[in-house]
């Protein structure tokens, strides 16, 4: 059955989610793709205005409310930017605790996405719940890992959701040695479980597809580490910049169909942030076990198939578990929980790698530490043009599919990018309007 | 090995979305009354389904408190069994904030994996405004006070049945 000579319009309507809202509209007419719009309604714009006039200590807690899935990412990027304004650099012990906290978030975010949001697409289930009935051991393994990620965030961050122990300069209190060491046994199990996940998802049937050739991959980079807390921003197009140079190379534009701004490279072209970009640009910084697994399942630095990002997330989960275990085993109570911070007037930028990709913050403070302006660029808005163009590219090559198969493929493709959007689309009914 | 408290109360919501913070406000009130009681676990979550399932682990009596938008009078509150969430919706419209969609998924997931507690009930406070911003509307604030009193009485009644058994104090 073909659809080349009729108009097809299908979409996913919007659904409110705390961490983001989205919808997808695709129009095909006379066998030609007319339009693809990813509709996202995000709250960061509100938070930017909401922060003005507040104390420099407040963004860490307030911006954590932007996303229920990755509050640590917002906290870390805010800390980095505000510490840049105040001329503060945290010591190695506190940085290790931040690294551990972030590993907890990566673990819980990645395993949630893999097991309940994305794997059902590959295995032909309408939902994670339906899949759980047939793949109970795998789902239970994922939930146990997610619980461990939550526990790490709770031990270091004070509570599992919207952590309250993070402050500019470090933490309000350092976790006890006993609480940290109690994590070790479960982390040892987690490393093996994450290895099993890599091998499991690598067996999934993968659509043959590549990102459009002019899409640049963009990620943080660190001299020695996989770049959860990376220092510079690099790209496959040769970029290598510091946080305060971000606006010299990137911008955001309003588009009619979305309240989220669309990220653009000033040099032109789309760009992608997130696991696939991180892996391609930092495969040499993975832990040895994660790197060996990546090679075992055929991931290389030339990877361009966004569907295989589920495998990258699994590899990154192995890495995060290993890093977390290393930090926990080597932990001793730091001499102080935070580096003293004295506010001063100025502008500072900071960033980190949220599970979904680069998250950039910029703050301007007055002389007493009140916020004059705030700017937040989340990964979703940066990826939005790339997602739309990738979907267009995918649809153009898949018009031979019937409506249901094409819709399913588009939903699956959206989920390659963003767990928050994935959450929204997973709960929605698809509809087709024919004209 | 730590014994899980027999009662868990979970608040869902976002205080930066006005009345979406109703659940957290109810929880704050309960914290004043039960914050030091080892038999009661008080948790604030964002509605993500797996966190919900894992937050009630080990408890036999669980309440979820959330803001809802069901077409009933602002500030009223409604209690239903979590497996009958549709009973909260008088209009056929979606319930407020998206959290209860997450709760519906959580209930289904828990049922599939045999993780449902014996008693899982939802207390929904009818919200008036879910716009960005801080502070509850006056009607929802009143509803929070009433709901908190109701829930405190329910928790106390359950705790009274635990004397001499199942008591981790």
Provide keyphrases for this structure:
heterodimer, A: 435 residues, alpha+beta, four-stranded antiparallel sheet, 15 strands, disordered N terminus, B: alpha/beta, 20% strand, globular
If you had to describe this structure to a student in words, what would you say it looks like?
- Helix content of chain A is 44%, strand content 20%.
- Chain A is α+β, with helices and mostly antiparallel strands and 435 residues long.
- In chain A, the strands form 5 sheets. Chain A has a 4-stranded antiparallel beta sheet, covered by helices on one side. A 4-stranded mixed beta sheet of chain A has the order 8-7-6-11.
- Chain B has helices spanning 22-34, 49-55, 99-112, 138-161, and strands at residues 7-12, 40-45, 61-68, 77-81, 119-126.
- Chain B is built from 4 helices and 5 strands, in the order βαβαββαβα.
- Chain B has a 5-stranded mixed beta sheet, sandwiched between helices.
- In chain B, helix 1 (22-34) links the parallel strand 1 and strand 2 (40-45).
- Chain B is globular, with a radius of gyration of 15 Å.
- Chain B is α/β, with parallel strands linked by helices and 169 residues long.
- Helix content of chain B is 34%, strand content 20%.
- Chain A binds chain B through residues 15-19, 43, 46-47, 50, 62, 65, 68-69, 112, 116, 127-129, 132-133, 136, 139-140, 143, 146-147, 150, 159-162, 427, and chain B through 14-17, 44-51, 53-54, 94, 97-99, 101, 105, 108-109, 112-113, 130, 132-133.
